[in-house]
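quick one before i forget lol
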Amino acid sequence: MRRRTFLERATATLGGVAAAVGVTGTVSATQNEPRVAERTTSTLLAGTPYETETVTVDAPEDGPTAFVVGGMHGDEPSGYRAATDVASWDIRAGRIVAVPKANRPAIQRNTRKNDNGDFNRQFPPGSEPNTELARALWGLVADTDPDVVLDLHSSKGIYRTHESFVGQVVFPSSVDPAPGHAREAVDTVNGRVVPWYMPYHRYKHGNLVDGDAPLLMHKVTADLGKPGYLIESTKFLLDPRTAAHWTASLAEQLLASHGIERREGGDAR
């Protein structure tokens, strides 16, 4: 969705979803100085135990819109660290709407679940989300009308190496062009970011997300029909800072493939 179209719609709907909006910076350009993206913040579910910051990065040029979420599970630090990084970027065109720490109570406790269970199992496709927090987050996704969605996670092991763990993998939605872009991003990050001496930590292309489970990305696929990616980086022999960097690198490659390019050398203001 184009940036200015969203702004018009969001003005009418923001009050029911978020409060305490504050512009953190506006930059005017000169002839010799490139314009940078503007960064604004708001609060989702303000005044409740689940309140959390949302960040919008608006580039000086119109373009596609991305929704980026981290911290669905509180014990997955590389996901919410990478989402926080993405929310600080300067971009050339389009917009990014980010919720870096979606499940703040679980993050504060360093637990997978909050008091209502597993947050990323509360988004049944075709039905209303199960909890207040899930409904608020889904409402923000729907109002954003994104062209692409990224959901950033961590895992304890490595996909197809450790049983029941899915680290080092990108699960794309079944909506084109997500499968092809996922393969390209995996190949790029494996070649440029993951060290050659860590072959077991090379990312893989996972199964397609087709809308048959009550996860956020499945609901994006089934209900919105939009391309999206669930990224899982491992904790196995990898410190959270490095895992977050690798996750953010994948996010950068995937967003660029959808026309949202990061501008080097500066953050949004």
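fyi Confidence is low (pLDDT under 50) at residues 6-30.
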